[in-house]
Amino acid sequence: MKSARLLSIVLLLQTRGRVPAAELAERLEVSARTVYRDVEALSAAGVPVYAERGRHGGIALLPGFRTDVTGMTTDEARALFILAAQGAHSALGLDDALRSALRKVMAALPAPHRPAAELTGRRILVDPDKWTPRPTSAAAPDGGPSGRGPAVELDVLHSAVFTDLRLRIRYRHSGETRPRTYTVDPYGLVAKAGTWYLVADRRGRPQLFRADRVVSATLTEVPVRRRAGVELAAVWQQLRRQVEDRPAEVRVTARIRRERLDLAVRILGGALTGPPRTGDGDGAGDGDDGSGDGTGDGSGDGGWATLDLAFPVLPAVRQLLQFGDSLEVLAPPAARRVMAEAAAALTAVYAADTPPG
């Protein structure tokens, strides 16, 4: 810890110039007395650092002194190259600058650290962008965590992708109670908008596995069998396109009360295929949808808005139940039946006078 603190002092002085001891102490979370002891240790080690007393004094390096990054540890070098995998640089037009900076950092790293840093850039990716808006069940592969039993620790998967051995995982798919067992050839890990995914080949075909659904992971003694010349970045782009370009199979028309429209747009934004239709002549709330006259709110056509929605599968329509009687599915008839059956099942749950037990 002391050696890391000494290096931090040198780097701070190198970038800031003269820095008061109190400020160094605050940044390093130590006392001012400890800072002065560290300065003495640096001076004894040959670093040209000195302290000036007085109102405008502080601790500084002799002009012209520069250090390099040879004090960087293996984990620090790996962390730097993981962060560099983010795609935000493209939006800022800094891709070329990033590549140039990484080449310089790689050249300045101690030789023993370079293989680990280079491999990390090929095994770990961080994609900060959210999935392209789609219906909820298609946007995030395999839905959310199941809550049935603990998932394997992320560091187990992290270690596995660097071993170049095949991995045997027990994986629980969305909507299933029992995990399945797969033997996969991992390319690496991807953090997509805060969710970690294992990217691997299964029987020679790329597949995504949500890390929080991997129940267990065990290394085999069989060498990994990746496709020749294929890296994590290319596999990830292929899988990402498959998810985001997945066509919606069910088109749904619904009407919603105007006072709930803003909320619906926020919640269902990924399922909307166009802007809500409101006003006269758009068919919203005109009484010809088969819903009878009991659903109006007395405000005429202006009380409703029409929504055009897309869902990957018919059962996904049930998420519209959260809007209660403020939303009605108009078409297709199959979607109306799904809503009616779900509403009937919900009514049966609450029909009893007292809850079970």
UniProtKB/TrEMBL annotation:
Q: Could you tell me which residue ranges the HTH deoR-type domain spans?
A: 2-61
Q: Where is the composition biased (Gly residues)?
A: 292-301
Q: Which superkingdom heads the taxonomic lineage of this protein's source?
A: Bacteria
Instruction: Give the start-end ranges of region Disordered.
Output: 272-301
**Keywords for this protein:** Transcription, Transcription regulation
Annotated coiled-coil segments of the chain: none
Keyword Glycoprotein part of the UniProt annotation? no
GO MF, one term, reads:
DNA-binding transcription factor activity
Name of this protein: HTH deoR-type domain-containing protein
> What is the species of this protein?
Streptomyces glebosus
